[in-house]
Design brief:
The protein is an alpha/beta fold. It has 3 domains: 13-83, Arc Repressor Mutant, subunit A, CATH 1.10.10; 89-199 and 360-374, ATPase, nucleotide binding domain (Nucleotidyltransferase, domain 5, 2-Layer Sandwich), CATH 3.30.420; 208-354, 2-Layer Sandwich (Nucleotidyltransferase, domain 5). The protein contains 13 helices and 16 strands. It has helices spanning 16-31, 36-43, 47-60, 125-142, 177-185, 194-204, 269-272, 274-281, 286-311, 322-325, 328-339, 343-346, 360-374; strands spanning 34-35, 63-68, 79-83, 89-94, 100-107, 112-119, 147-154, 157-158, 164-167, 172-175, 189-193, 212-218, 222-228, 231-232, 315-319, 350-353. The protein has a 5-stranded mixed sheet, with helices on both faces. β4 (89-94) and β5 (100-107) form a beta hairpin. α9 packs parallel to α11. The radius of gyration is 22 Å and the shape is globular.
Length: 377
């Protein structure tokens, strides 16, 4: 199913059973049906421990017996066990778009069962939270399997407890979104930055590499999720990847730089966000539009070059409107990064659109639930 995210915290003795449980589920999720003996070998757990864990997981309904393995070896064939990935659902919500809240009911492997969307109609603050709760209730009602949790990818700086510390475009400040929705919906809710969820989606379900990956999300705002050496980069105060609020435009002879939603001027969002791009291209013929997109690509490349160099990234994937991003903008951004970095850093850098397309953040939100509830990444 994809690559496994490297754990960033040491397992404590008291958490050993939960840690071992997650290892078994990780292996079954990514490798498919497996015998108990193979599980013991792959996880370095004893056969007795694996048998106990499998029995408990079968009692929970997460794992099932699949019968004997077809093989030509002498002796009794091994019995296989596998995850019941189609028998449970997760609810995933993507809040990256400023006009719409989009959600889906999904299987554990990312297959979409049902979709719902709600127009924001300019709602922010408490009104937007109420709309989000209503959307989640609608999605929970649409599920015809047990739902193990709700995952939400939201713009803004979000801490490890799912509190939105700061999301200017939503007028959310210190909003305990995960805790409030968990209490209201009576299901576990996990909330993380939308760009981070996109990175998790590409890494876990989209086949992206984990040695140096950035997923840049371009919508009403601009953000980035980063995976380096198999670990999601969170940073001090959980604000890693907030490239949208790096200043890239200075005041000029025509007046001050454009005002950003964060209150400062000249942020990358004022150039690269979808509304800014649409305004820039309004009324232009295709040739002139390509010139403007290339100009934005150069600005983006200048902003990305030090990040790519500092982290030695190898892969950049973009999530957003393909008609705006996949063309002169991406090509110029890649050329600019390569011009402004050492060849050993930029020569093999790959830029492209997210393989999961418009569902990248939804898939990432589903991974939040898999990670938070089952220990699967």
């Amino acid at each position: 199913m994809g690559r496994v995210l490297r754990p960033t915290a040491k397992a404590l003795p008291g958490h050993a059973r939960a840690h071992n449980r997650s290892m078994v589920l990780q292996h079954l999720f990514h490798s498919g049906p497996t015998s108990r003996a193979d599980l013991a070998r792959s996880t370095s757990l004893t056969r007795v421990t694996v048998s106990d864990l499998v029995a408990a997981l079968m009692a929970e309904g997460l794992v099932e017996e699949l019968g004997a393995r077809a093989e030509g070896k002498v002796g009794k064939p091994a019995s296989l066990v596998g995850m019941r990935t189609q028998e449970f659902h997760v609810v995933a919500v993507d809040l990256a778009d400023d006009a719409w809240m989009r959600g889906a009911v999904m299987t554990l492997t990312g297959d979409v069962v049902a979709r719902r969307s709600v127009a924001l109609d300019g709602r922010v603050g408490d009104a937007a939270v109420i709309a989000l709760e209503d959307l989640c209730r609608d999605l929970l009602a649409a599920a015809d399997r047990p739902v193990i949790g709700v995952g939400i990818g939201s713009p803004g700086v979000i801490d490890s407890l799912g509190t939105v510390v700061e999301a200017p475009n939503r007028d959310w400040y210190d909003v305990p979104l995960a805790a409030d929705l968990s209490a209201a919906l009576d299901v576990p809710v996990h909330v993380a930055n939308d760009a981070n969820t996109a990175a998790l989606g590409e890494f876990t379900l989209g086949g992206a590499g984990g040695s140096g990956l950035m997923v840049l999300t371009v919508g009403q705002g601009v953000g980035a999720g980063i995976v380096v050496d198999g670990a999601l980069v969170q940073g001090h105060r959980h604000a890693a990847g907030e490239l949208g609020h790096v200043t890239v435009v200075d005041d000029g002879v025509d007046g001050p730089a454009p005002l950003c939603a964060c209150g400062r001027r000249g942020c990358l969002e004022t150039v690269l966000a979808v509304p800014a791009l649409r305004r820039r291209l309004a009324g232009l013929d295709p040739a002139a539009a390509d010139v403007e997109l290339a100009a934005v690509g150069r600005v983006l490349g200048v902003a990305l070059a030090p990040v790519v160099s500092a982290l030695n990234l190898s892969e950049l994937r973009f999530s957003g409107p393909r008609d705006l991003l996949d063309g002169p903008l991406l090509r110029t951004a890649q050329a600019t990064v390569q011009q402004r970095t050492m060849p050993v850093v930029g020569a093999d850098l790959r830029l492209g659109m997210a393989s999961l397309g418009e569902d990248v953040a939804l898939c990432g939100a589903a991974v939040l639930v898999l990670s938070g509830q089952l220990g699967i990444t």
